[in-house]
Amino acid sequence: MSRGARFVLFGVSAAGLAALLGWAFAGLPDFGAYAGRYGRIVAQLAEPDRATTNAVTFTAFDVRAIDTLVEEFIVFASAIAAVALLRHQRDEPEHAEDTDTLLRPRTSPALRLVGAALAGPTVVIALDLIAHGHLTPGGGFQGGIVLAATAVVVVAAGGRVRLPPDKPPLLGEMMHGAGAAGFVLLGLGGLIFSGAFLSTTFAGHGTTGALLSGGAIPLLNVATGFEVAGAVIVILGEFLEQEMLAMEES
Amino acid sequence: MTVVQGVLLVLVGVGGGCVALARDPLRQAVLTGIFGLLLALLFFALQAPDVALSQLVVGGVALPAMILLALAEVRSHEERDKE
């Protein structure tokens, strides 16, 4: 097909697509208009029923907690998959003479200073996001990723994630396993104490706005935060380790 | 729709175009970070602070960081190959 014919074909198709898109966008509901009932009901129930002021967290960890459980297991399974795929390649014993070169910093002092200065506040922000998930925007997923971002900051500033071949990255894996198990155990707590799996009412409501309120929702947030942070640290650690193995071989 | 939301929508469109048009991977990684921050601001202006927080961390920090780490590794490989 010649260049001209292709341009004609593209022009006709693009004009058709633009017309269809314009037609579709013209029929969209108004900006901010919401026709559903479910959202309104949930938003009205969040405060009187569970003493949570963040309706998003209320939806994610109470009304649709089973969805969140499955989401958490998706994160869990992907971390396990990354470990299973990458770790078997790490079986060569470490050379002792490598230690000196590994411990030598490879970044500038200014970068390491900025990294060290950022790491502490990032951890505090992460814990704040997780702890106040039921009151203000945030929660386990967001806070967990911020917590893992601390590890990214440290590595980017020149810290080494270096592990002997027979030892797994213990901290990340413990966090990630404990978080996943904690979520399920809290769900079982609901089954035992208030008759339904992942029912959050057994822990008591507390006063609206208090740090310890909203039933088991803050606890579920903590479990999710640990799970997400641990999983991201495990995945990043495996990838970095893989890169370093490739560098040593070359 | 308020003025802030309109301006941010336009900025997100421009930012996305810049990311798509950038040819150098390093420049693209930095632009992706800026684009992620713009998207986070847009979500915030659209009254979705929870989504904005996730976007801030994933699009503004995690994604550019992973691209930059990958680029750094590729470059150190290339330097080794030259030696």
Short précis:
The complex is a heterodimer of chains A (250) and B (83). With 250 residues, chain A is mostly helical.
Describe the protein in words.
The complex is a heterodimer of chains A (250) and B (83). By secondary structure, chain A is an all-alpha fold. Chain A has one domain (34-249). Helix content of chain A is 69%, strand content 0%. Chain A has helices spanning 3-26, 38-50, 55-63, 65-87, 98-103, 109-131, 140-156, 170-194, 217-249. Chain A starts with a helix and ends with a helix. Chain B has 83 residues and is mainly α. Chain B has one domain (3-82). Chain B is built from three helices and no strands. In chain B, helix 1 (3-21) runs antiparallel to helix 2 and helix 2 (25-45) runs antiparallel to helix 3 (49-82). Chain B is elongated and about 60 Å long.
Sheet with the most strands, sense and barrel status of chain B: none
- Overall residue-averaged pLDDT value of chain B: 87
Distance between the termini of chain B: 58 Å
Shape of chain A: extended
Q: How many domains make up the coordinates of chain A?
A: 1
- Approximate strand percentage of chain A: under 5%
